[in-house]
Every structure is written in C-alpha cells, then in structure tokens.
Specification:
- The structure is a homodimer.
- The first copy, chain A, has about 325 residues and is an alpha/beta fold.
- The first copy, chain A, folds into three domains: about 45 residues, 434 Repressor (Amino-terminal Domain); about 130 residues, Rossmann fold (3-Layer(aba) Sandwich); about 120 residues, 3-Layer(aba) Sandwich (Rossmann fold).
- In chain A, β1, α5 and β2 form a beta-alpha-beta unit.
- In chain A, α1 packs across α3.
- In chain A, the strands form two sheets. Chain A has a six-stranded parallel β-sheet with strand order 2-1-3-4-5-11, sandwiched between helices. A six-stranded mixed β-sheet of chain A has the order 7-6-8-9-10-12, sandwiched between helices.
- Chain A is elongated, with a radius of gyration of 26 Å.
- Chain A is built from 13 helices and twelve strands.
- The longest helix of chain A is centred in the first third of the chain and has 16 residues.
- In chain A, about 45% of the residues lie in helices and about 15% in strands.
- Chain A binds a DNA duplex (30 and 30 nucleotides) through α2 and α4.
DNA sequence: GCAGTGCCGGACAACGTTGTCAAAGCACTG
DNA sequence: CAGTGCTTTGACAACGTTGTCCGGCACTGC
C-alpha cells in the first residue's frame, strides 16, 4: 500500500480510501491510485485489515465428517449463506472425536472467526464459555451442547420422526421390528431410539435393538443374531443414513426383513426404501441464518428451532399380503 | 497479552515467549504467566500473529460442490493432510462458475493462504499469475489450468478409464453404445468422450452421444431419443457419477440399456452397476501432499501425476446370453 | 572483591491496515 | 478581499503480535 501510495504520489490513507471505496476522493486521484494498483499488482492484506477492524468475515464450521452426504449437504448450505453475507468458511471434521472438536473450535476462535456452527461430538462444552462470554456467537446443529451452555440450537424432530416410521411399520402389520442405531452416546441416536421405543409400546423387545457405530461386520452380526431368534424381526428400522446403507448391504441377496431408514440417501428411490427424510440443507441454512442474525446484533434469548422430518413411503415397509 | 503481562508482573515479550514455548524463561516466571493466562482466559490473536510472521497456516480449497460425493471425499482427504501439517482449510464451492472460482481464489489470496488447491471451473487462469509469482503455490486437481499457467496438476486417467469401460462393453458383445457426458467444456467430460470414441473406433455413432449437464429431464429426453432410433443402444456409458445416477433414475422401471458409469457411487454394488472407479480421497491426498512439499521449499519443475482408475465389473455391462 | 560468562527479562520497532483528526485547497458570499 | 463552509488530502496512532537488541543479574573462577 505504501508502494502504491508513493507510485501514485498520494498518501497512504488516500490509497486506503480508494481501496475501500470510501467517499471524498477526487475521481482523478482515485484513477491515478487505481492505475498504480494495477501496475504494481497490489492486493489488500486481509490479515492486517482483520487485525485493525476486528471482524474476520469468516465463520467456523465443525462437523462430523464432510464425506458423509448429510454433513456435506449441510456444509454446502452453510457456505451459501455465508457467501451471501460475504463471509468465508473455515471448516473441519471432528470424526466424532470430542478432543478434535474442542481443538478445532478453539483454533477457530484463536483465528477470531466471527461465529461458529458446531455439530458437537463431545458432551462437555465448558471450554466454549470464555469464547461465548467474549461475544463469539455459536449455533449448535443436529445435536445440543453439553449442560450449562445455553446457545442457539437447530435440531430435527428425531423422536417424532422415529415414531412416524415405527407407526408406519406397525400400521402395515409389522409387530416384530428391529432397531439398529448408532452409539447411544450420540444424541440423535438416543432420541431416535426413544421415539422408536415409545411408538412401539408393548411390542418393544430389547433383543431387537442394537446400538453400535455402522460397520458392516457389526451390522451383519447383529442382524444374523436377530434373525436367528424364535420370532425374528420382519422389519428393521435403521437409525441413520449410514446404517441404512450398511444394513441394505448386509442383507443383500437374501430374503430378509424390510428396511426402513432414518435419513434419505442417494438412490433410495430406486431401491424402493421407505425413509424418514430430514433436510440437511435446510438445517444448515437455518443455522447459518440464525448465526448471521446474532452477528448483526440480535441478542434475544437462545432459540431452539426444531425442524420437521417427513415420512417418504416407498413400499419397503409394507408387508406382502 | 498486555493484560496478562501486567497481571503476571512481567513484560509483554515474556508472555509471548511463554505462549510460544520459547526457551529462556525461568520456570517459575513461566508458571506465573500461565496462571495469569488461565485466569484471564487469554488466547493468542492469530490474526496479529499472521500479520507479523507472514504465514497463515491455512490453505484454500476451491472445488465444484461440496455436496457432490466425489468432491466431498476429496475435501476430506485434503483436510486430513492439512490437519497433519497443522493447517486449517478455507474452502469454497465454485458451482462450475468461472467467475465465482476466480473470486474465491483471489479472496483466499487476499487472506494470504499459504497455498491453494483448485478444481478449476474456468478456462483462463491468468488472474493467478501475480499470486504464483508472489510465491503462493497452487495445485490444480481433476482438471488442468488454462494455457500459460504451469503449475502442479493431479489428474485421473480419464481417457484410459473411459476406454477401459468401452472395451469391456464391446468385449461383452455390445456394438451400439451410447455416451452421456457432461458439458464438453468440462475437461474430464471431453477426455472421457475422447477415450470412449477412440476405443469404440468404427462403432462410434454421433447420434448416440449427448453432452449436457446432468438434469433428469435432459437425460431422460436424450435417452428417449436414442432408444427410438432404428438401432437403439444396448448399453449406456455415463461420463460421471451424477450422470450415472440420473440415467439410472431415468431408466428406472423400464427395460432399457445396461448402464456402466465413470465414477463409483454409493450403493453401486447393490445395484450391480459396473463402474470405472477413481479414488477421490487419493486424489485429494496426492494433491495436498504435493502442495505441502512445495510449501516446505521444493522448487522443482511442475509435476503432473496421473492417477490410475480401475474397472469394477458388476455385471451391468454383460449382454444376456 | 573483581572480571568474565550466561541467562533472563524488557524496550522498541515493525508487520499492513484503518479510524481520528487536522490542515490545505477551493468556491462562494457579503 | 476577508470570512465561511465544503471537499479533498494527509499525519499519526492503534490493532496484537514477534524479532532484535541490549541491560541487569547471578554465578563462576581467580
């Protein structure tokens, strides 16, 4: 900038004014400055600007894994909203590791992101307290923060969705329904199990429940075990997209129970699988918009919108006549 | 930092030393400083540090769309390598828009990212010249840069893969094979068409080729048109993952040609679709590692690794006897 | 007790920008 | 032609850190 200033024969501040489109610069002077900028290939140093102004025009996004279609869709929506506000996105995957989540969040904070959107992996977010107190807004998505942290959250109606699917199965004549969920420590997994259990009532059977992270081996073993029971399940409700896909794979090529899943997935329509669909893009959009409202000064009490989910019947839950 | 210094009763610089783990601080002093840091909830302002040191420990990634599984996988790999080098990732989706690509890249540069990984959407990258000259290394992935820009590139063997699939189909008795590709302006689409055409030789028929971006309507229309020909295709080779999925959807429920696709996709195994698989994670990893080699001082000539692709036969290309 | 040696702590400048404030230039009025 | 008000420009400090350099202090060996 100094070089541009001397090249154009003006003061530093005048260059700054031109670069920022501030009023009060004579058009001829501005042209001279712009010419010098082009000639020297100058571009403003954003780090210095950030240091001076205090706003980074960057938000931090911590998700579980970008490669998971659900979080990829969510990411994309957050990015779009951020772009519309002239913000960039620093993002990182926690891999369901609380320590990594904490590290990412704190690194983002050290870089003075303007705000945070977090899909938490851990249960304790007290490490966020100083940052929140310092005025960095955060929005939790898909899962709530640990106790004592009262921030905005955007959740889906997990229990309701699970109940919806369960009732659908029952209505179609199923009475032995298995549930495959992720680790019970994961909020969504627990909520969905809860919805399943509640909707199933007296039909609920502990032996038809398996809560483990989605690996083909474990899913296959669980299904084998359940199918070997006296009264095997006629339907399986899977607690997230990955489990649905894994279960379908485990059951491929054999006559097994019908599969109904939480989360929609690519080609579910072709495979005719009934699902409870949530809208990851909407979740990301709602969270990002909430964050930007906070950034523009909204200091109301924490909000906790719950997004609806919808049953998409595709036949897989219907018992053959 | 100033507050911490006065709280601990030491000079600013001493705090800096403690924070950076520099030697030459008495352990007792260091403890006092650390206590003050904890008490005040201080965290280093990374922007100021960047301004002073010149390195941001951030790399910029421009892809086409995070929500596309191919780029999501690539992103994840880049992120892993970056994390291993203590770097964060600024990422953005260009949506196949050259102007947006340019904007993202230049914004990243203004923020002084240490390096760039770009899946280019445009054809002209002369805007990158000043940045490259200024010493910001860039690696192009999946598609090469426009003319005159000689940087590292990591590409897949697009033509070879397409030829592989085509020969597979021919070997299984197909002589009327259609090709559905993305816009011909997209490098990979053009290369794959080229491989297809070359491998097909005299069997190539212009009427069985459609190069359009993957929308269900256009794909359906193209297929309908082809299937209405005198000698309709017995197989369709789709030029990328999205087109494969779209074609499968367009053909769902009717007796149509066999579908073989470029790019693997979730559940391709269950659907029994033969594909030419590339490894997005590997592509991302190779690109990121190349970038970090540049960042650690490797100034050798630009490298252009070409990653192999592999045919995964799953039956969909075989003519019924 | 004194010079020499090492270690530790601190003052200061610099990174590149922007906000504040004051001054200079100019046209216009009375 | 002085006075007024507006526009345009510039000098300076500050943002929070780190690199450089220097001074003070304790410790050693005589």
């Amino acid at each position: 900038m100094k070089d541009v200033a001397s090249a154009a024969g003006v003061a530093l501040k005048t260059v700054s004014r031109v670069v920022n489109g501030e009023p009060g610069v004579h058009p001829a002077t501005a042209d001279r400055v712009r010419a010098a900028i082009d000639r020297l290939g100058y571009s403003r140093n954003e780090s210095a600007r950030v240091l001076r102004r205090g706003r980074t025009a960057t938000i931090g996004l911590v998700i579980e894994d970008v490669a998971d279609p659900f979080y990829a869709g969510l990411s994309r929506a957050v990015e779009s909203v951020a772009a519309a506000h002239g913000c960039l996105l620093l993002s990182g995957s926690s891999s369901e590791d609380a320590e990594r989540e904490r590290e990412l969040v704190l690194t983002f904070c050290a870089r003075r992101v303007d705000g945070l959107i977090v899909v938490p992996a851990g249960e304790d977010h007290s490490y966020l307290r100083p940052e929140l107190d310092a005025g960095t807004p955060a929005v939790f998505v898909d899962r709530p923060p640990g106790p004592g942290i009262d921030v905005d959250t955007v959740l889906a109606d997990n229990a309701g969705g699970a109940a919806l699917a369960t009732r659908h199965l029952v209505a179609h004549g199923h009475s032995r329904i298995a549930f495959l969920g992720d680790e019970p420590s994961i909020f969504t997994a627990a909520r969905r199990l809860h919805g399943f259990r509640t909707a199933l009532g007296h039909l609920y059977d502990e032996r038809l429940v398996c809560m483990r992270s989605p690996a083909l081996d474990t899913v296959r073993a669980a299904l084998d075990r359940m199918l070997a029971l006296d009264r095997p399940p006629t339907a399986v409700f899977t607690g997230n997209g990955r489990l649905t896909v894994t279960a379908l794979r485990a059951l491929a090529g054999r006559r097994g129970p019908a599969v109904v899943g939480f989360d929609d997935f690519e080609l579910s329509d072709l495979l005719g699988v009934t699902v409870v669909a949530q809208d990851p893009a909407r979740m990301g959009r709602v969270a990002a918009e909430l964050l930007f409202r906070r950034l523009s000064g909204d200091t109301g009490p924490a909000e906790h919108p719950v997004l609806p989910v919808g049953l998409v019947p595709r036949g897989s839950g219907e018992l053959p006549p």
